[in-house]
Design brief:
single chain; 242 residues; Alpha/beta knot; 2 domains; two-stranded antiparallel sheet; 9 strands; binds S-adenosylmethionine
């Protein structure tokens, strides 16, 4: 899968993308990431990319022209190329959206700065607006990294074991169960004995119950959409004292 990031600050990405899972995915050629510097597409000796807002007010607005020229300069890969604008006003980015995006051939991510981008970029040239949460960041670059990371994990071969993301939080609408590793006792806290029992069925049931319990405690809103089988429903009823 190919990602193209349109940004004023391509250098912000370098160290993050060269490490760990993403770094390996890049070096194996499972994902490919390009950066298009909006500044290159600014006009005049100062390569201007922003201007004062019509109607007055604070801050600067990113001009449409340089962003559109940057967009047009990007080669479209495959049949499914999707243009995403990072904005706090967009649809909230969540795991189901990450799955949808992972089916594209190419994602082009436009990162705003300042007060945001000229509205005509959004109106005419964007397939989807995405927010990474209800807070305001200084720029879309962190959002682009979040999207690239979450989507790349879903591309076959990027994670070591093919199945290792299927038990992650949100995959079936629940939070994942807790994890423990050595030592067996840490600061007086013991690993739950069932995890040492070697009984795979008991471990599976314990993990499922823990997953439902923590979802009930921390994110009860998720339970409305979660895919619960009769065994899960029985666990939930028990936890709720029904
Ligand atoms: N004036 C805008 C508003 O109130 O909606 C906020 C602009 S913000 C300071 C600058 C840029 O950061 C945005 O254009 C967007 O690209 C990015 N950004 C800020 N918060 C974001 C969020 N929660 N999700 C995704 N991108 C965000």
């Amino acid at each position: 899968m190919r990602f193209d990031v349109i940004t004023l600050f391509p250098d912000l990405f370098t160290s993050f993308l060269k490490e760990s899972i993403l770094g390996r995915a890049l070096s194996k050629g499972l994902v490919d990431i390009g950066f298009t510097d909006i500044r290159t597409f600014g006009r005049g000796p100062h390569r201007v990319t922003d201007d004062r807002p019509y109607g007055g007010g604070n801050g600067m607005v990113m001009k449409a022209g340089p962003i559109l020229r940057a967009l047009e300069s990007i080669e479209r890969i495959g049949k499914k190329s999707h243009v995403v604008l990072l904005t706090p006003q967009g649809q909230t980015f969540e795991q189901s959206v990450a799955w949808e995006l992972s089916r594209q051939d190419q994602l082009i991510l436009i990162c705003g700065r300042y007060e945001g981008v000229d509205e005509r970029v959004r109106l005419g040239h964007v397939d989807r607006e995405l927010s990474i949460g209800d807070y305001v960041l200084s720029g879309g670059e962190l959002g682009a990294v979040v999207v690239i990371d979450a989507v790349s994990r879903l591309i076959p071969g990027v994670l070591g074991g093919e199945k290792s993301n299927l038990e992650d939080s949100f995959e079936d609408g629940l939070l994942e169960y807790p994890h423990y590793t050595r030592p067996r006792v840490f600061h007086g806290m013991e690993v739950p004995p069932v995890l040492l029992s070697g009984d795979h069925e008991k471990i599976r049931l314990w993990r499922r119950a823990e997953s439902i319990k923590r979802t009930l405690q921390s994110r009860p809103d998720l339970l409305k959409q979660a895919r619960l089988n009769p065994e899960d429903k029985a666990i939930l009823d028990r936890l709720q004292g029904k």
